[in-house]
């Protein structure tokens, strides 16, 4: 009995059909009487027609010119379901269990294409927002361009990257023509930053006066300046990552500029360096960044993370702390 009821119900549901785009036919039988309700979708309303099978011939009970149903939001599923359910209920009465199912079938048939498109859009939006929310960041591995390095999170003593290049951009000046090296990605980026800077300030060029420091030099510097809080211990300086430069501005005419007093240049760097992937790691003072402020210090982090930090006014140390890694390492 139950199986038979289920079978009957299946048949009832299956019979809803899309006659052509925008037109669905909902057949219905009750007490051996058979009906057909046809729904025509117009622009912002539906038109309905009801037919009854009498002695093998379909007779129109309600002409479609007589029955207009306006729906404010024609593609809103709930609106559609409510309206169609009330039509079915009004015309056919019990068993009501089939009414919402038939309405649902009709809705799906009418809007399948748009439902699929909407699903795709939603999936895409979720994917995009997930990507935006949490960019792939590796603050831990020595060879990650985002490695957070500090006294508590030093690199391995033996760490040397395999993608080193000599800094060689024609837009860059190098102090006393010294040879500096950076990791490939950072080298490309400093070239782009320098080019944009020179385009903006015709006669002024970025000059690099420090990049990689070997361990011995880092140690000597630390011993000399440790009281000032401007130099990191060895294995814990960003300069040992081959991703970092200290810069100032060189006037091509030869005159050196005291950049510290020149807010135009500093401002330019502060507002734009992240677009090229560079971050001013030491910008908030020793309490936060573990090193005193160094406006000249630029560390390559990649555009995504550098921009994220700039837009949220975070220094790398703050970002790292936010991720609760530091506290774990201190234990
Ligand atoms: Zn530096």
Please provide a written account of the structure.
α1 packs across α3 and α2 packs antiparallel against α3. The longest helix has 36 residues. Strands 1, 2, 3, 4, 5 and 6 form a six-stranded antiparallel sheet that branches. The chain has a five-stranded mixed sheet with strand order 8-10-11-13-12. The chain has a two-stranded antiparallel sheet with strand order 7-9. It has ten helices and 13 strands. It has two domains: 130 residues, no CATH class; 167 residues, 2-Layer Sandwich (Muramoyl-pentapeptide Carboxypeptidase, domain 2). Zinc ion binds next to β11.
Quick description:
With 331 residues, the protein is α+β, with helices and mostly antiparallel strands.
Major sheet characteristics = 6 strands, antiparallel
Number of strands: 13
Task: Tell me the strand percentage band.
Answer: 15-25%
**How many structural domains can be distinguished in the coordinates?**
2
Topology as a string of helices (H) and strands (E)? HEEEEEEHHEEEHEHEHEHEHHH
Bound molecule types? zinc ion
Number of contiguous helices: 10
Distance between the termini: 70 Å
**Helix amount, in percent?**
25-40%
Q: State the CATH topology of the largest domain.
A: Muramoyl-pentapeptide Carboxypeptidase, domain 2
Give the low-pLDDT segments: none
Spatial shape: elongated
CATH 2nd-level architecture of the largest domain: 2-Layer Sandwich
Radius of gyration: 35 Å
| SS class | alpha+beta
Q: Quote the average pLDDT.
A: 82
Level-1 CATH class name of the largest domain: Alpha Beta
Oligomer: single chain
